[in-house]
Amino acid sequence: MRIAVVGGASSLLRTEGGEQVFVQQEPTIPPEFLPEVTLHMEFLDVLRRTPADVDWFYLSPPIGFGSHVPGKRLGRYRVGTDVLITDEQGDSSISGEDYAIALLDEIETPRHHNRRFTVGY
Q: Considering the entire predicted model, what is its pTM?
Protein backbone atom coordinates (compact mmCIF):
# COMPACT_ATOMS: atom_id res chain seq x y z
CA MET A 1 0.00 0.00 0.00
CA ARG A 2 1.16 3.52 -0.79
CA ILE A 3 -0.07 6.66 0.93
CA ALA A 4 -0.19 9.87 -1.09
CA VAL A 5 -0.62 13.16 0.76
CA VAL A 6 -1.17 16.53 -0.86
CA GLY A 7 0.09 18.96 1.75
CA GLY A 8 0.95 22.60 2.05
CA ALA A 9 3.90 24.87 1.29
CA SER A 10 4.31 26.27 4.81
CA SER A 11 6.80 23.66 6.01
CA LEU A 12 9.08 24.08 2.99
CA LEU A 13 12.37 25.87 3.57
CA ARG A 14 12.99 29.23 1.90
CA THR A 15 16.62 28.25 1.27
CA GLU A 16 18.71 25.14 1.94
CA GLY A 17 19.15 25.01 5.71
CA GLY A 18 17.14 28.22 6.10
CA GLU A 19 13.86 29.08 7.76
CA GLN A 20 10.51 27.62 6.86
CA VAL A 21 8.08 29.47 4.62
CA PHE A 22 5.82 29.83 7.67
CA VAL A 23 7.61 31.47 10.58
CA GLN A 24 5.71 31.72 13.88
CA GLN A 25 7.25 35.08 14.82
CA GLU A 26 6.20 36.79 11.57
CA PRO A 27 3.10 35.02 10.31
CA THR A 28 2.20 35.89 6.74
CA ILE A 29 -0.78 33.55 6.75
CA PRO A 30 -4.24 34.84 7.66
CA PRO A 31 -5.24 33.68 11.15
CA GLU A 32 -8.21 31.68 9.87
CA PHE A 33 -5.80 29.41 7.94
CA LEU A 34 -3.44 28.74 10.87
CA PRO A 35 -5.22 25.56 12.10
CA GLU A 36 -4.92 23.99 8.63
CA VAL A 37 -1.28 25.06 8.26
CA THR A 38 -0.41 23.65 11.67
CA LEU A 39 -2.22 20.39 10.98
CA HIS A 40 -0.34 19.87 7.70
CA MET A 41 3.01 20.52 9.37
CA GLU A 42 2.19 18.13 12.22
CA PHE A 43 0.98 15.43 9.83
CA LEU A 44 4.24 15.61 7.85
CA ASP A 45 6.12 15.06 11.12
CA VAL A 46 3.92 12.03 11.88
CA LEU A 47 4.63 10.57 8.43
CA ARG A 48 8.36 11.01 8.94
CA ARG A 49 8.11 8.86 12.09
CA THR A 50 6.18 6.00 10.49
CA PRO A 51 7.84 2.59 10.15
CA ALA A 52 9.97 2.15 7.04
CA ASP A 53 7.59 -0.48 5.64
CA VAL A 54 4.88 2.17 5.23
CA ASP A 55 5.41 3.66 1.77
CA TRP A 56 4.27 7.29 1.62
CA PHE A 57 4.95 10.56 -0.12
CA TYR A 58 3.91 14.11 0.70
CA LEU A 59 3.64 16.60 -2.16
CA SER A 60 4.03 20.25 -1.16
CA PRO A 61 2.86 22.88 -3.65
CA PRO A 62 4.50 26.25 -4.30
CA ILE A 63 3.23 29.30 -2.41
CA GLY A 64 1.41 30.51 -5.52
CA PHE A 65 -0.93 27.57 -5.94
CA GLY A 66 -4.65 27.15 -5.55
CA SER A 67 -8.00 28.25 -6.89
CA HIS A 68 -7.15 31.83 -5.89
CA VAL A 69 -4.08 31.77 -8.18
CA PRO A 70 -5.18 30.77 -11.67
CA GLY A 71 -2.41 29.46 -13.82
CA LYS A 72 -1.82 28.26 -17.34
CA ARG A 73 -0.77 24.70 -18.06
CA LEU A 74 2.81 24.65 -19.34
CA GLY A 75 3.20 20.86 -19.52
CA ARG A 76 6.39 20.94 -17.45
CA TYR A 77 7.54 21.47 -13.89
CA ARG A 78 10.66 21.26 -11.74
CA VAL A 79 10.99 18.90 -8.79
CA GLY A 80 12.61 19.69 -5.44
CA THR A 81 12.79 18.21 -1.97
CA ASP A 82 12.39 20.45 1.09
CA VAL A 83 13.26 23.83 -0.43
CA LEU A 84 10.66 26.08 -2.04
CA ILE A 85 11.04 26.21 -5.83
CA THR A 86 11.13 29.72 -7.27
CA ASP A 87 11.78 31.15 -10.72
CA GLU A 88 14.33 33.82 -11.68
CA GLN A 89 12.02 36.56 -10.36
CA GLY A 90 11.53 34.80 -7.02
CA ASP A 91 7.98 33.69 -7.80
CA SER A 92 6.82 30.32 -6.50
CA SER A 93 3.97 28.97 -8.60
CA ILE A 94 2.43 26.18 -10.66
CA SER A 95 -0.91 25.76 -12.41
CA GLY A 96 -3.47 23.32 -11.07
CA GLU A 97 -3.12 21.27 -14.24
CA ASP A 98 0.66 20.89 -13.95
CA TYR A 99 0.40 20.16 -10.23
CA ALA A 100 -2.09 17.39 -10.99
CA ILE A 101 0.28 15.98 -13.62
CA ALA A 102 3.12 15.96 -11.07
CA LEU A 103 0.92 14.07 -8.60
CA LEU A 104 -0.11 11.51 -11.22
CA ASP A 105 3.48 11.16 -12.43
CA GLU A 106 4.51 10.20 -8.88
CA ILE A 107 1.66 7.72 -8.55
CA GLU A 108 2.38 6.10 -11.92
CA THR A 109 6.19 6.14 -11.58
CA PRO A 110 7.14 6.34 -7.89
CA ARG A 111 10.37 8.26 -7.26
CA HIS A 112 9.79 9.59 -3.74
CA HIS A 113 9.50 7.00 -1.01
CA ASN A 114 8.93 8.00 2.60
CA ARG A 115 9.66 11.63 1.96
CA ARG A 116 8.22 14.95 0.94
CA PHE A 117 8.88 16.62 -2.37
CA THR A 118 7.73 19.79 -4.05
CA VAL A 119 7.13 20.97 -7.58
CA GLY A 120 7.02 24.35 -9.29
CA TYR A 121 8.10 26.30 -12.34
A: 0.90
